Amino acid sequence: MIWDNSFxxxxxxxxxxxxxxxxxxxxTGTAIAMCIGLVLAIMRRARAKWISLPAEAFVEFVRxxxxxxxxxxxxxxxxxxxxxLFDGWRCAMVKLDNLGGQEATTKTxxxxxxxxxxxxxxxxxxxxxxxxxxxxxEKLAVIGxxxxxxxxxxxxxxxxxxxxxxxxxxxxxxxxxxxxxxxLVPASERxxxxxxxxxxxxxxxxx
Length: 207
Prior knowledge:
8 strands; single chain; alpha+beta; Rossmann fold; four-stranded antiparallel sheet; two-stranded antiparallel ribbon; 45% helix
């Protein structure tokens, strides 16, 4: 791991913004959950079956199914019944293609490319020959359980962790490697500083 004080200071405003957003989402989500829970509790105690049975079914569905299945149902199941929550959203790896705009059509090379990237921590392999491409102008969300490598992907892109194998390209330029003539060699600290500067102007992180 390479520590860069200037880079750490430069991301402090983003960390503060993420902290505020996280607190806001936590408070809002808790309030909404309490309201929904109260309504469901009242509905389940109702004597009318047409009120209590839908509430029972909803509670059992939430309790018995993984979160990923619930997200899939929200974005793909509800539209079958004519209910649309968020147009253009897709689940698991959520790609908002409509927000790419004209920029996505004017560039064909991916903004980010992972090619057979592997990363291990001790004997634990977190990423195993990962292949990933993100076109310009596209927003991407990575959803997965704890320990599946989501944070590791971000840390690799932020040059906070070095991959054990494979190559990563940002806007067509190697991130953890650089060219010496025709050879691709491990990147120098000068090259890493250059890539960090480019990243700040290329995209913003949302956590």
